Amino acid sequence: MVKVLPKENLSVFLAELSRSYAVFAPVKRDELTRFDRYSAGDHPTHDYSTTNMPPKSLFLPHGECLVSFGGAGPSVPAADEKFVIFMNEIDAEAISILDEIFGGKFQDNYYRRMRENSVIVAVKNGVRMRNSFSDELGLKFRDGFDVLLSDVGDRYVAEARTAKGRKLLKSKFIVNGRASSKAASKTKAKKFDLKKISAFLDKGPEQKIWHELEKECFACGICAYVCPVCHCFDVEDAVRLDGGGCRTRYWDSCMLADFALVAGGANFRGKRHERIHNWYHHKFARAVAERGRPDCVGCGRCITFCPAKIKIHDRILECRK
Fold first, then answer.
1. If you write DSSP's letter for every residue of 31-85 in order, what string do you get?
2. In this structure, are 165 and 237 located in the same domain?
3. Considering its fold, how many domains does the chain have in total?
4. Which of 26, 118, 177, 238 sits at 20 to 30 Å (Cα–Cα) from 300?
5. Are residues 168 and 314 in the same domain?
């Protein structure tokens, strides 16, 4: 026997969770599917093909006050709300990469406390995200979540992966049931040759592909903002007339012209083709060398929302030639 969540119990299960946690799920708002706070009457779209923003915004908020200061001295804003968030396996894999980045050798306490306050429920349903190439990355989907819900038709098979997940599955709406008789679908997609891709990217920004790409790319940074893994940020101090203020972290992008601008006017990547190359190199060469996997889960948002309609997947494949 296994634990299952009948789909007819989903809404009451969410209502039960809402009494102890803030619950976030992909819901449709104004024709866009986005991660939003669940409220009674909402119908989560667990089989979403994309969302306008990734779930990283809950763990690495844009415009996050890191410390406020004033007459009473500095203080760190509280962040003690416990929350549950539902997402698909691909987005959960992205969170596992952020865990390595912000929870590795150099700990980010702000990110860590958000993760400690969270319970991640990954939903496996076989739905391919729009423009996704995750199957070509050979993702393992082994961590990054506390509960795995596998869609097997009229129910979800529920598996707890952590102590927080086991607590969630104590709900009276999670019942004993039978295992799935569905055969897991297998993909035969050809995997990226990351060794070849990394070697090409290590040649630097003066290869022909980057000069060609700068004629198409607006260098607007949209690919970074919608990416569930991109994590560059800037920090600004805003000071009021009374001397108080706040130090705030904002999302940033290495695609933007002033990202590498330093005091004195020097810019380490002042040319567009240099910034484009850096974005690809960081994801598919430097990250692989540092942590053994790319800073990409193939969700396809960078392609879906690119205003220049650049097929980023195809550009990656060009790097293996």
1. TEEEEEE--TT----TT-S--SS-THHHHS-TTEEEEEESTT--BPPP----EEE
2. no
3. 2
4. 118
5. no
Range of the domain at 218: 194-318
Please list the pLDDT of the chain residue by residue as tens digits (321 residues): 699 999 999 999 999 999 999 999 999 988 889 999 998 888 899 999 999 999 999 999 999 999 999 888 899 988 889 999 999 999 999 999 999 999 988 899 999 999 999 999 999 988 889 999 999 998 877 778 999 999 999 999 999 999 999 999 999 999 998 776 554 555 567 899 999 999 999 999 999 999 999 999 999 999 999 999 999 999 999 999 988 999 999 999 999 999 999 999 999 999 999 999 999 999 999 999 999 999 999 999 999 999 999 999 999 999 987
228 and 146 share one domain: no
pTM confidence score = 0.93
- Whole-angstrom CA distances from 110 to 101, 136, 266, 299 are 13, 33, 31, 25
Of 151, 177, 203, which residue constitutes the final position of a domain?
177
In sequence order, the 6+-apart residues with CB closer than 8 A to the CB of 224 are: 230, 232, 251, 253, 254, 255, 279
For 209-224, letters b (16+ CB in 10 Å) and e give bbeebbeebebebbbb
